[in-house]
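Hey team,

Filing this mostly as a record. A colleague (T.K.) asked me to run one chain through the structure pipeline before their review meeting, and I want the input and output archived in the tracker in case anyone asks later how it was produced. No errors, nothing strange. Just documentation.

Input sequence:
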Amino acid sequence: MAVRMRTYYDKAYKGKKKDFLNLLKERIDSGRRTFVVTANPEIFMLGRKLPEMNEALSDEETLIVPDGIGVIRGGKQLGYEFEERIPGVEICEELFVYADQKGRSLYLFGAEKSVLEDLAARVRREYPNAVLAGCTDGYVQDKEKVFREIVEMQPDIVLVALGAPKQELLIHRYYRRGEKGVFIGVGGSFDVLSGRKKRAPSFFIRHNLEWLYRIASEPKRLKRFWDSNIKFLFELRKEKHGNR
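Output structure:
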């Protein structure tokens, strides 16, 4: 029997972004281990397809936030209401500021080497009080070895940009081995945070149309959009009417 989307929606965070960020800051300060999934429809579809991904999403300790507007609109079909989107790229920006204010440590894992170098340079330049504990690009061969070493270092914040489901599976497999740290899978956010790619103009962000801007900018994303977002809506409709 297929996994029900309600399994993920029941535990997803539905409040305001500022309150969620305050929750993360409290966990950083208290040293409580935390795994955050920035969810879009593709993430939920992968949960239905891959047992290990479903385990990660269903774990009672995993925090799921609505990164994509598709998750919010899809949730309405099943009777779930969210206050607002909580984009992963905005979480990263806020955590950079907080790390700078409090002298917290960061580890950056993922993306191309040049992108990572640009992001690391930006962190050192704009957030000089943040401690950049290390950074490793996403093309290293033994990612599991690297991640185990990251966990042993126990940085306060670990941002993993390996794409779904690699980043979520890796975090879920190992993050409990450490004593502390907020671990977040952030997909392609390093490209934007480094300045290599521009985020959608404010009009698209305000009107929850970032997905349209990305498709217009990168037409190759259209098939991926169909395979995740459109099929996701079909699956929600079936679930709403009792067919799984």
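Quick notes for T.K.: The chain has 13 helices and six strands. Residues 38 and 65 are 5 Å apart (CA to CA).
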